[in-house]
Design a protein that fits this description.
The complex is a heterodimer of chains A (about 450) and B (about 260). Chain A is about 45% helix and about 10% strand. By secondary structure, chain A is of the alpha/beta class. Chain A has a 4-stranded parallel sheet with strand order 7-6-5-12. Classes of the chains: A alpha/beta (about 450), B alpha/beta (about 260).
C-alpha cells in the first residue's frame, strides 16, 4: 500500500512502510550509500508528515522483513505484549509522540514491552533532539549483577583498559588508572587483541583477581565472540558478563557468527554460574547503526530502524548493559558530528523506550568529520537524557581499536556539571578505600591504596 | 605524592595508553589536551592530504620501474569518504588507459593507493618498493607496471590486477590513521584478482612505517606470502603468515635464496 502526502501542487508518494521510514529518517550518509534516503529535504519532511499519520497498529501488522524469512522479526512479534499494547494501540505515530512527552515514568515502564523497534524508530523520526532527551530521561531501566545500574540521577562508566598486545601489566596499569578516577562501575571490559581461548583465560583471571582482591562491587568482561566465551565457561574460567555484538536482522547476526539459539545457550550458561550477587542481568551487547548495511544484510531498511531491531534481540536476554558504538563504523554511515550526535540520541531513546539499559560509546574515527568538541556536545546531551553509562578510555584514545571515545575525565566533567552519581555500591566502595568522599568527589592528596596492586610494586 | 607520581611514571611505561595524566579539577591538564589535539590534527591532515602522484611516479621511475597513474570513480575526498563503492571502481578514462597499457600477463601487479593516508604513501611506499625489488628479481617474478591510484580503496586492485592479467595483486595503501600512527601503510595481497573478491580472500601486512614494521621486513613478508600464494594458488584466511619463522630462524638467508 502506498503512502501519500500533498505539499502545495506536489503529491509525494511512498511505496511501502520501509520506504516511508527510510525517507522520513533525518539525513545520514549510510542511508544515501544504501540508495534509500530522501532525495530532497522536502521529500524527507513530506515523509515525516505522512509517517505521523500512520497508526501504530498498522506498523505492527506490516513486518518490515517477513515473519518466515527473519528470526529477529519472529522474536519481535512472538514476544510482543498485547495487553500492554492496549494502552497505545489506538494512537498514530504523531499521537504517540505527544503521548510520550506527557507520560510519567511508570507509564513508560508499563508500555515498554509493547513497543516494537519499528514503533520506537518511527516515532523517533518525527522527534527533535530535545524530544529524544526529554522522553529518554523519564524512561529508566534498572539492572543488577554485583551493583545497581541505571537508578535515576546516576551514570555508570565502563572502564576500557585495552592494550595493543593484551599485555597483562599494561592492562592492569590502565585499570588502576581508571579506578583512581572513580570509573568502572558498569563493567571493567577489555577488548582483546587476540581471540584465542588461552589469551581470554589469562585476561579473565586478571579481572577476577583484581575484583576479588579489592572487593570491588563491579563485574568484569572480556569482549570476545560469544562462542569463545561459551568455551571459556565450559573450561571453568571466571566469566562474569557474556558479551556479543548483535544487529537487527538474522542475516547480519549470521555475519557476526551468531544466532538467537547460540545467544540463548550462552545466556543459560551464564545464569548457571550464578556469579551475580545482587541480580542475574549478566549479558552485555554492543550495537551500532550501519552494521546491517556493512554486512549486506539490510533488506532495504534504513539503518536507524535496523539498529532499534538489535535492541529487540538484546531485550530478550535481560542484559545488564547494552551500548551503541555510535561513531565507530565510519563516515560512510555517519558522516560528521551532527549525524553522530543525532544517531547517539536516537539510539539511546529507542533503547530506553523499549526497556533496554542503553549506554553509549560516544566516539568517532579520524576519517569522520568530527572531533572532541562534538563528543563533548553528545556526552552532555546524553547526560541530560539519563544515559545509563559511557566509556572510560585513558585520555579518550583507544590504542588497541584506534578510535577516540570518552576519557575518565569526561565522566568527572559530566558528574560535576549534571550532579550525576555512580552506582551506589561502587560509590560506597570508593569512599571506603578513601578515594572519594561521601558526595562522590575524588579526594586529592590521599594515598592511593590501589597502587599496592601496581605491576612490579606488590609487596 | 612524589612517590605516587613516580609510580605513575613507571606504570606509564607499561602501556602506550594515555594513563597517569593527572587532572585539573574534573578536566585534563593543559598539556594532555594540547597533545591530544595535535595528534588528532596530524591524523586529520593525513586523511585529507592529496597524493602527489606525479612526484611519486618520478621516484618510482628512479627505481627503474615503469608506472601508470589512475583514478577511481570518487571525484574528491568528500565523495571518497561517503561512497566506498566508488573508490573500488576505476574511472572510465582510467580503465581505457589501463587497457592500452596491458602487455601480456604478469606474476604480480603492484598498486600504490592513497587510501586514508596519502602521508603514509609519500613516506613509505617507495622504500617498500625498493626493498621488494631484489626479492622479485631473485624469484624471477614478472611485475606489471606500478599503478599509482588516487581516491582508491583496496578492492580497486582487483580490477587493476584483472586488467593486467596478473596472477596476484599487491595493494600498498594508506591505512586509517590512528591517533599515534598517521603514517601507517598497509599491504593487501590477493591471488587471482578480479572484482568481487572479499577481504577474507586477502592477506594483509599492516603498520608499515618508521615506528612500526620496517620496509625491509615488510618486503620480506610480502615476498614470503607471494611465494606461498603462487605455489598454493590462494590467499586469505587459509594462508597464515609464518614468515617470521624463516626470518628469525638460523637459516633465514637460505630460505630467502630458495624462494
Amino acid at each position: 500500500m502506498a503512502y501519500r502526502h500533498v505539499v502545495g501542487p506536489r503529491t509525494w508518494a511512498f511505496a511501502d512502510l520501509p520506504t516511508l521510514l527510510a525517507k522520513a529518517t533525518p539525513p545520514r550518509s549510510g542511508d544515501r550509500l544504501a540508495g534509500i534516503a530522501a532525495e530532497t529535504a522536502e521529500e524527507s519532511w513530506a515523509a515525516r508528515w505522512c509517517l505521523a499519520e500512520v497508526p501504530l497498529k498498522e506498523i505492527l501488522a506490516r513486518p518490515l522483513i517477513p515473519y518466515e524469512r527473519d528470526a529477529v522479526t519472529r522474536l519481535i512479534l512472538d514476544t510482543h505484549d498485547q495487553a500492554a499494547f492496549a494502552e497505545i494501540g489506538h494512537l498514530t505515530v504523531g499521537d504517540f509522540r505527544e503521548f510520550l512527552l506527557t507520560a510519567p515514568s511508570e507509564t513508560l515502564a508499563r508500555i515498554a514491552p509493547a513497543v516494537t523497534p519499528e514503533i520506537a524508530a518511527a516515532v523517533s523520526k518525527i522527534m527533535r533532539n530535545q524530544d529524544l532527551i526529554l522522553v529518554a530521561r523519564k524512561a529508566r531501566v534498572v539492572t543488577r549483577f554485583r551493583n545497581t545500574i541505571g537508578l535515576p540521577g546516576t551514570l555508570a562508566v565502563r572502564l576500557q583498559p585495552n592494550h595493543p598486545t593484551d599485555d597483562p601489566a599494561g592492562i592492569t596499569a590502565a585499570i588502576l588508572d581508571g579506578l583512581s578516577y572513580g570509573c568502572g562501575d558498569a563493567v571493567i571490559g577489555i577488548n582483546p587483541a587476540s581471540d584465542s581461548v588461552q589469551a581470554l583465560g589469562e585476561l579473565l583471571k586478571l579481572l577476577d583477581g583484581m575484583i576479588e582482591r579489592h572487593a570491588i562491587p563491579t563485574q568484569g568482561c572480556v569482549l570476545t565472540h560469544v562462542t569463545t566465551t561459551l568455551e571459556a565457561m565450559e573450561r571453568g574460567l571466571p566469566v562474569d558478563l557474556v558479551f556479543q555484538s548483535i544487529a537487527g536482522t538474522e542475516a547480519a547476526n549470521a555475519s557476526f557468527g551468531v544466532t538467537l539459539d547460540i545467544l540463548t545457550e550462552a545466556h543459560q550458561a551464564m545464569l548457571s554460574l550464578k556469579r551475580g550477587t545482587l541480580g542475574d542481568n549478566g549479558m552485555y551487547f554492543e550495537t551500532g547503526q550501519g552494521s546491517c548495511l556493512s554486512a549486506d544484510a539490510h533488506h532495504g531498511i534504513d539503518q536507524q530502524t535496523l539498529e532499534a531491531r538489535a535492541y529487540a534481540v538484546a531485550r530478550a536476554y535481560r542484559p545488564l548493559l547494552v551500548n551503541t558504538v555510535v561513531g565507530f563504523i565510519g563516515p560512510e554511515y555517519l558522516y560528521d558530528g551532527k549525524e553522530i550526535i543525532r544517531a547517539g540520541l536516537e539510539d539511546h531513546f529507542c533503547g530506553k523506550l523499549m526497556g533496554v539499559p542503553l549506554g553509549v560509546d560516544v566516539c568517532y574515527t579520524n576519517h569522520a568529520e568530527a572531533d572532541q568538541d562534538d563528543m563533548d556536545t553528545l556526552l552532555t546531551l546524553l547526560g541530560a537524557a539519563g544515559c545509563t553509562y559511557i566509556m572510560g578510555v585513558p585520555g579518550a584514545d583507544d590504542v588497541m581499536l584506534n578510535y577516540q571515545s570518552t576519557s575518565f575525565h569526561d565522566s568527572l566533567y559530566l558528574r560535576e556539571v549534571l550532579g550525576l552519581r555512580r552506582a551506589p555500591e561502587f560509590a560506597a566502595w570508593l569512599q571506603a578505600i578513601g578515594l572519594a568522599d561521601e558526595a562522590g568527589n575524588l579526594l586529592t592528596g590521599a594515598g592511593n591504596r590501589l597502587l599496592a596492586d601496581a605491576p612490579g610494586l606488590a609487596a | 605524592m612524589s612517590d605516587q607520581s613516580e609510580i605513575w611514571a613507571r606504570l606509564g611505561r607499561l602501556t602506550p595508553a594515555r594513563i597517569g595524566l593527572g587532572r585539573a579539577g574534573s578536566g585534563q591538564p593543559t598539556r594532555a589536551i594540547l597533545g591530544f589535539g595535535l595528534a588528532h590534527a596530524q591524523a586529520r591532515d593525513a586523511v585529507h592530504a592529496t597524493l602527489d602522484a606525479a612526484a611519486l611516479q618520478e621516484r618510482i621511475a628512479a627505481l627503474g620501474l615503469p608506472s601508470l597513474a589512475l583514478a577511481s570513480q570518487a571525484a574528491d575526498r568528500a565523495a571518497y569518504l561517503r561512497r566506498p563503492d566508488l573508490g573500488r571502481r576505476l574511472a572510465p578514462e582510467s580503465r581505457d588507459r589501463l587497457a592500452q597499457a596491458v602487455d601480456g600477463d604478469c606474476d604480480l601487479a603492484l598498486v600504490v593507493a592513497d587510501g586514508l593516508s596519502a602521508r603514509a604513501v609519500h613516506e613509505n611506499a617507495v622504500p617498500l618498493l625498493e626493498a621488494f625489488r631484489p626479492h622479485a628479481e631473485r624469484a624471477g617474478w614478472r611485475l606489471g607496471p606500478v599503478v599509482v591510484a588516487v581516491q582508491a580503496r583496496v578492492a580497486l586492485g582487483d580490477a587493476v590486477g584483472e586488467a593486467l592479467k596478473a596472477r596476484a595483486v599487491a595493494v600498498l595503501i594508506g591505512e586509517r590513521p590512528g591517533l599515534s600512527s598517521p603514517d601507517s601503510l598497509g599491504i593487501y595481497l590477493t591471488f587471482d584478482p578480479r572484482p568481487g573478491r572479499s577481504d577474507a580472500e586477502r592477506n594483509c601486512i599492516s603498520n608499515v612505517r618508521g615506528a612500526g614494521l620496517s620496509p625491509d621486513r615488510a618486503a620480506f613478508k610480502l615476498a614470503w606470502l607471494l611465494d606461498q600464494a603462487l605455489r598454493r594458488g590462494l590467499t586469505g584466511v587459509r594462508l597464515k603468515d609464518e614468515s617470521d619463522r624463516s626470518l628469525d630462524g638460523p637459516d633465514a638467508a637460505g630460505t630467502i635464496a630458495r624462494t
